[in-house]
Amino acid sequence: MNAILNFASRILPGLGRDEDVHAFNGGVHPPEHKSESSTQPISVLNLPKTLVLPLRQHVGHLPKLQVKVGDRVLKGQLLAEAEGTVSAAIHAPTSGTITAIDEQIIPHPSGLPDTCITLSSDGLDTWAPLQPIDWQASDKKTLVDSLRRSGIVGLGGATFPSHIKLRSNSQSPIHTLIINAAECEPYITCDDMLMRERADAIVSGIEIVKYLLGAEKCLIGIEDNKPLASKAMRAACSQGQAEVKVVPTLYPSGDARRLIHLLLDLEIPSDKRSTDLGVQVFNVATVLAIHRYFAFGEPSISRIVTITGNVLQPQNFEVLFGTPLNDLIQAAGGAHTNTSHYIMGGPMMGFDLPNSQVPITKASNCIIAARQDLFPAAPPAMPCIRCTRCADACPVNLQPQELYWFAKSDNFEKARDYKLFDCIECGCCSYVCPSTIPLVQYYRYAKSEIIATDKAKEAADLARERNEFRLARIEREKLERAQKHAERAAGGRAEASANTDATVPSTPTASDSNDKQAAIAAAIARAKAQKLAGGSPAPAQTSPTAAADNTDKQALIAAAIERAKAAKLAAAQAGEAPKNTENVSPSVQAEIKQTDALREKVKKSSGENADIGSETSADKG
Amino acid sequence: MNRSPYISDAPSVSTIMFKVLLALVPGIAAYAWVYGAGILVSLTLATSTALLTEAALLKLRQRPIKPYLMDMSAIVTAWLLALSLPALAPWWLVVIGTFFAIVIAKQLYGGLGYNPFNPAMVGYAVLLISFPLIMTKWPAPLALAAQPLSWSEQLNFIFSQSLPAALHVDATSSATPLDYLKTQLLLNKEVASISLAPMFGHFGGQGQEYVTAAYGLGGLYLWQQRIISWHLPTAFLLSLAAISGVFYLVDPGHFATPLFHIMSGASLLCAFFIITDPVSGPTTPKGKLYFAAGVAVLTYIIRVYGGYPDGVAFAVLIMNMCVPLIDSLTQPRVFGHEK
Lengths: 621, 339
Ligand code: SF4
Ligand code: SF4
What we know:
B: globular
């Protein structure tokens, strides 16, 4: 049957591809809208008066504040340092004074406020003393440790701290470095412009990353709609540092797993990371940032942002993190009056910004001023007619129409069976649906429901296991006590032997009351689990464990069991976390954040400090 | 808020249905040319019945009427049914069939997108069971009729079943070539001699083969427009050719050629328009191949051994029942997973 299908797709037109590039299923090719913003060179924005720096600009733990209100800081000075394994530092993008550290609206799909550092610029832009590092003369470990202070995260939108992706891993050495320069989303041109203008610096960055990873080979994947960029990169790679591979323009070729397949004909198994197969993916802007860090000592304080859509002069700017969006809009000639709102990211995976004051962050690759007719509201959804256009377009080869059906009917088990968690939320299915069903929204909903249920279940399991452990302890203590009694009785005192007789029949009564206690403990655990599922921050800590202040030995056993549980839980979460892409959608990021938060709670409650399983999503760009 | 993607590029359901109707036009033209313009009356009757019943049912079910009428899926059902009925079918036959198709097979199951059975084929099957005599009598193609009916005589026949005084029903209608072949074979005649009868044309039934060819043309247009994929028609036609070919090779005296089976009856209408109904069909690529092959085999068996002249309707309905099973057994391999 497969042979028939293969044969048929070979003889039918439009399905043949370059032999060098290995197509994935589906994909879509929306109007590119890239030329609008790629005619002008990258400009530098004027220094903003105030900058607002959210502490949460990356995937992972919040960094630890190093400044307080009133502090004067220099450009490039550390404001918050990475805490825990998966975390990234934040630096002052310019010199000035810290005027506030409080909650402000951040550019995030939730639209919720989060802790931000407000920095008033002094207009001098004075650099702190910088320390370039001669990477060729240093050992890898020192370099990677130093990168931890750079604040560099994946700039393709995934914002995963880069130093973690560069840590050496003896189990699966990296042989191939892939530079993701596909930039497959419409409108976005920041990577394109970066490659056209700074190809040499990018290639220097590639050399560093290759060295750190120990990779022999480097492939740069660029879509064929960026001929100038691929030409510039080819020229810069004249020493053979990397090979430029031009892939067909087909969204979502910039998704890490799709790009690896395109370039290497390698399908990363769903339950593995690309690094398990010796492949690591970096975004093109990220390697440039790494180059700047080592060559000049510059931490990550700015990025290239595309401002396009309904603005007078769509263009790319080098923007300091924390710059208010309004400044960027003004620099692009201002927005037309009929602008309805702003979108961060591309039209396929981006999200609505809550207002035009939000700061530019490490994740802001593109801002699109939206207009009603540019992004018309979808007509009311019709029923699914099972036309399978969505399945034909799905790059993961899922059956979106089935997933939709299961998500809609809250049949989450089935949705999981049909690999809901392999969905990368790329939006191809919604893009081609004749019934204009907001399919991706259904998947986001189903995923969040499943994750919430799983979390509650894990918490409940944890509580139950703890309770079982507690019962076992009580039982053991009782036995020990009985033993002591027996020993004492054996000591030869007559009255003691009477006591022993009395003790033995009392045992069943004690265990009765134990049962009752167990039931109560279970009920408490259930209630806690429910609370946890409801988003309450209450950790799943059961009081009986807290009372386990007995012998040292018991404490040791308890600690060991908790460690094992924490590891198990972390592993379970690692399995469930959708661990896909360079371009992880913000909602997935939110989920990761939630998972991280939960993990922290579990760690706290089990008295563990090690970062078990915290790099579960290490293959995000 | 995360409501991406913000853009889309998809023909609306109405556009898809409109193109299906458009693709039927060559077939209808050929039909009218071969059997007379009476078919246009049937189509009009079916269309109005479909729209009226659909609107009434939507109102009863308190659904918005306009968007669902505008999707034109009811008209597609109506046309497919009308084209499957014998030419010059009496008006009430058309109305009853359409009523069943829209009310029972579609709306009572939940309307567009929810019908497990192909509505047009449900309508057809109901009529075939209830009125077998009328359903198996086809008028002879105009070119063959001793006295071709004029336009007004056709109208008269559709609405009152009355014929010009000089004519008897049997003079204008007969069994279809498929039916005739079967009855003649029962009389121990050989295929070769049977097909010398004037009702047989080059490949299939005289005249009917042109209609069939025109359906094929419309089908290719649908494929070119990416409304249908190649899987269903190809698998159906190849399987039908294969099974009839095997029988023909074993005993050419008693079994018609593959070409006859493909060009006769509703084969091409089935291949391009009926089994390609997305709602009641399978969704996986492999499932489509199995489904179409199943319809082809059943069609052949019913044609050759069953009590009905053509097997398409029942074959489709039986395979519709298997769709959930087929779909669940043919899930494609998800990226990054073992089979
Ligand atoms: S594209 Fe839309 S209508 Fe077609 S099968 Fe998928 S979900 Fe259903
Ligand atoms: S959003 Fe998910 S289901 Fe839809 S096309 Fe992308 S991966 Fe497939």
